[in-house]
Amino acid sequence: MLKKIIIDCDTGVDDSIAILFALNRKDVEVIGISSASGNTDANQAAENTLRLLKLAGREGEIPVCIGATEPLKGPKRPYPELIHGANGIGNVILPESAQRPVDMDVRDFLYKLASENEGEVTLVTLGEATNIALTLEKYPDFSKKIKNVVAMGGSIFGSIGNVGPAVEANVKGDPEAFDEMIMADWDVTMVGLDVTTAVHLKKTDVDLALSYCRDDCRNQLEYISKALVHYMRGARIQNWMRGESPLHDPLAMIVAVDPSVVRTQKRITRIECEGKYTRGLVVTDQREYPIEGRYVTHCVEVNENKALNVLFAAFQESLR
Ligand code: RIB
Ligand code: CA
Fold first, then answer.
1. Nearest of 200, 159, 199 to residue 302 by alpha carbon
2. In a mutational test of the pocket of ligand 1, which residue from 21, 40, 126 has the highest number of ligand atoms less than 8 Å from its CB?
3. DSSP E strands: which ranges in 248-290?
4. How much is the pTM?
5. 35 CA to centre of ligand 1 in angstroms
6. What's the CA dihedral at 143, 148, 149, 155 to 10 degrees?
7. Which atom of ligand 1 is nearest to the CA of 15?
8. What is the tens place of the pLDDT at every residue in 130-172?
């Protein structure tokens, strides 16, 4: 049976790799994509998504909806041009699509998709959780209609951060929304920096994949290769990485379709919404009498080689 997936993302470079991976998995049906602000604004993120769908030969097949342009509270974080470029996808200009975003409120869009596919959908969030929190506020039974949530965000081991010493961008960008998302009545798996920074995507991995990919996805890998030039430059300047980058959003999508790549642990979890350095911190409590929170599944270890194999297998020729 096909795995039905809704993607909520701020279509930047790593989001775009995650989207293309999902589109090329034979066992996945992407039933809708909503855009978030983060790597770029929600309008540009939707535009990038539409162009990616065209690139993958899927123009007009999957509805795309523009989401919230502001977080629930607090200032919007600056768009990280150093990492994702001025247009979010590493300054690569993809051909325009004739498909337009659906003319719907993102809350109605997400709820409608979830209701039409009740109990069958994995919601994969690759950006700030604003759209999800807003949908839960308008439709409290949204959580009952979704099978499970896989969210890229946060970190739980010590001080691992990327937009602060201990905070990750998707959580920090809208901590109240992320907290609402994990406190809702559904199964949430968080794929955080603890594992995404442990998978190193190398330029040579993409070159190799290009040498054995299917003809119908060569253009997509060529796009990935181009977009990664800017992204890996950012990783070099910001993360001490040379000729490689962490694997954030694609790893979350991989976990959504093949959880065997990670080892997980369930912990009572909340998001800290205060503090100069701690706003956006993921707080987990393993004490006997913990704080009030919900159990969230956290990825604590990853098989790097397997994750990269699973990623590129989606684009390769198949013997079956
Ligand atoms: O911290 C990494 C996350 O922030 C990724 O989802 C990236 O695309 C940005 O949104
Ligand atoms: Ca993202």
1. 199
2. 126
3. 262-271, 282-285
4. 0.98
5. 13
6. 120
7. 8
8. 999 999 999 999 999 999 999 999 999 977 899 999 999 999 9
